[in-house]
Amino acid sequence: MGFADLSIVDIATEYDLTIQAVFDLCDQLGIAYKNQETNLALEDAKAVIMQILHRAQADSNPSS
Questions:
Q1: Phi-psi category of residue 30: left, alpha or beta, with phi > 0 → left and psi -120 to 50 → alpha
Q2: Is 44 a member of any domain?
Q3: Do the Cβ atoms of 23 and 8 come closer than 8 Å?
Q4: CA–CA dist 63, 43 (Å, integer)
Q5: Ordered per-residue pLDDT tens for the chain, 64 residues
Q6: Which domain holds residue 25?
Q7: What distance in Å separates the CA atoms of residue 63 and residue 46, rounded to the nearest whole number?
Q8: Secondary element (H or E) of residue 64
Q9: Within-domain flag for 51
Q10: Rounded-to-10 torsion of CA 52, 58, 59, 63
Q11: In terms of DSSP bridges, do strands 3-7 and 39-41 run parallel, antiparallel, or are they unpaired?
């Protein structure tokens, strides 16, 4: 598995989230990390980003 050039802090900055929010997503997805500078495996970074985008879409289109 390759590594993305994205750390937890990079993802938090890119998507205007707190580092803790990204830690929480990693925990929910079972993704191991050491600290905010941890570079994520490519598939893990994709999973975190997809979850962020899914939540953003759900927040912008709430159910009636």
A1: left
A2: no
A3: yes
A4: 30
A5: 677 789 999 999 999 999 999 999 999 999 999 999 999 999 999 999 999 999 999 888 876 4
A6: 1-39
A7: 26
A8: none
A9: no
A10: -170
A11: antiparallel
24 part of a folded domain:
yes
- The identity of residue 6, as a single letter, is L
Is residue 35 a contact partner of residue 20, using CB atoms and an 8 Å limit?
no
**Structural domains in the chain (count):** 1
Q: Is the dihedral of CA 5, 1, 37, 56 positive or negative?
A: positive
Residue type, 56: A
C-beta separation of 22 from 12 below 8 A: yes
What is the DSSP annotation of 4-35? Answer: EEEEHHHHHHHTT--HHHHHHHHHHHT---SS
Residue 64 inside a domain? The answer is: no
